[in-house]
Design a protein that fits this description.
This protein has about 240 residues and is an all-alpha fold. It has one domain (about 20-230). It is about 75% helix and about 0% strand. About 40% of the residues are buried.
Length: about 240
């Protein structure tokens, strides 16, 4: 019995105890942002909605290796997003705001599911579909990715809302930071309306492609800083 107890205490303490794991997952938002930026740089600029067959073939077939490498980084990014939401949930639960924590969990599951689909489609195009010389299918899937990213605006906004309202209700952020979080929520939610045929407010326009994701990343980093200011609770859940 004493040997078992000693082994248990050793496994839950020291360098790899519960405090280590909780601190690690509280940095997952920063890790997600890093993986997202790296994946975006490697992936490059996806052809716009309605791009020509030659442009699609040049991107998906010509840059096949680059896209598949970006897929790996994007996958790691989504995994870290899930852990980031788990850290929010545990922090809000400790603060008596489990309802908002549950909302964050649900929102992150929706975001993660959509992201995995949007990662898988370009990977499939690069791996074999585009090379099969089926321009209609390639065009349809390329446009599907743009439309799908617009739709991620809704669960992304819900994640921001859950975290912002949960932190505020728990007294973890000031009214000023709460107002900034609400502004970010509204701006990300507006990304779900970017359905113009072209230009700034199109699915492949600057707002949906750049501004809305940047706002989301800034919120994730700020939320991670808030999580890191909290002392890990004494629990066996990590």
């Amino acid at each position: 019995m004493s040997t078992f107890t000693s082994a248990t205490n050793s496994s839950t303490g020291g360098h790899f105890g519960s405090a280590f794991w909780e601190h690690l997952w509280r940095t997952a938002g920063i890790q997600f942002a890093g993986f997202f930026v790296i994946a975006s740089i490697i992936y490059g600029y996806q052809p716009q909605v309605g791009a020509s067959a030659d442009a699609l073939l040049a991107f998906y077939d010509g840059a096949r290796t680059r896209i598949l490498i970006a897929t790996v980084f994007a996958g790691f990014g989504v995994l870290n997003l899930m852990w980031f939401a788990a850290a929010i949930r545990s922090t809000l639960t400790d603060a008596g705001q489990d309802g908002w924590g549950a909302a964050a969990t649900g929102a992150s599951a929706a975001v993660g599911g959509l992201f995995f689909v949007l990662i898988a489609v370009p990977a499939g195009l690069a791996y074999s579909i585009a090379g099969a010389r089926n321009p209609e299918l390639t065009t349809g899937l390329n446009d599907f990715v743009w439309a799908g990213f617009v739709l991620t605006s809704f669960p992304r906004a819900m994640l921001i809302m859950a975290g912002t309202f949960g932190f505020w209700r728990a007294g973890l952020i000031s009214n000023r930071l709460f107002a900034a979080g609400v502004a970010g929520l509204v701006l990300v939610l507006l990304g779900g309306t970017t359905w113009m045929n072209g230009g700034f407010w199109a699915p492949d326009g600057a707002y949906s492609r750049l501004i809305s994701p940047i706002i989301g990343l800034v919120w994730v980093i700020m939320a991670s800083k808030i999580l890191l200011t909290r002392s890990p609770a004494t629990r066996a859940g990590w």
